[in-house]
Amino acid sequence: MYSDWFEQKRQDKMRQFFLKLSKEGIIKSYNKNEIIDIESGEYVVIVVEGILSVEIISSMGNEKLLYVLRPGEIYGEMSYFCGGRCVTILKAKEKSKIALVKRDILETVLENEPEIYRYFIHSITRKFRIVMLQLTSAIFNDSIGKIADTLLRLASCSEKNPDEEVSISVSYTHQELANNVGCSRITITRCLNRFISEGIIDIKNKRIIIKDIDKLQSYVDKII
Fold it and tell me: Residue 152 burial (CB < 10 Å; 0-12/13-18/19+)?
């Protein structure tokens, strides 16, 4: 449904470049659920190992999961180019390793190889599309439609698996899905069980596999 929005080939090319650039950075390691505090605008974070989550937390403690970052993906590029305080929270979803690339190193790389601006533009555009789809889904869909739309989007952003199954490559807890969708954990559990009973999805080794895309799409009031 969203495969044209999240082309895997471009994403892989971007990841390869940033993993190469990570060798110029300061390597730091983090444990699961540890918050990563980075000085805005002075560094760009490159994920080297593991998975990071990018979230927004309200003053009342409510959490909104925006997206996750995998090896070769970056964080902090918006503050680097546009300035301003970064309002999102970066957290290790699992044991992870990052590279902090300093501003002066990035300035030199961009001056010598201006064509790599396209990788930064790709990263920002991808994140914009993810957040835009979350916003439109929240407006257009009921709870089950929002959950169906989220599963389709997460699958489109996932790496293809060897079995050619349409699946979500990153493992999410029901609470993490609830934080992403904007509903309760109980609602997530109820809707996932419904999708399983209808033969739309299956869950293997904590990974969601979409067995009937058309039927899952039928729950979604999608963008035309």
Answer: buried
pLDDT on residue 161: 67
Tell me how far apart the alpha carbons of residues 177 and 59 are, in angstroms, rounded to a whole number: 21
Q: Are 159 and 80 part of one and the same domain?
A: no
Say how far apart CA 21 and CA 125 lie, in whole Å.
20
Which residues touch 197 (CB under 8 Å, ≥6 apart)? none
Domain range for 213 is 141-218
* Edge-to-edge order in the sheet of strand 74-75: 26-30, 96-102, 43-49, 74-75
Q: What is the pLDDT of residues 156-194, one digit of tens each?
A: 998 776 666 788 989 999 999 999 999 999 999 999 999
From residue 130, how far is each of 95, 102, 214 by CA, in Å?
24, 27, 21
Q: Using DSSP, how many helices (H) and how many strands (E) does the chain show?
A: 8, 10
- Assign residue 191 the CATH number of its domain: 1.10.10.10
30 has which bridge partners? Answer: 96
Distances in whole angstroms, Cα of residue 60 to Cα of each of 56, 57, 110, 177: 12, 8, 40, 19
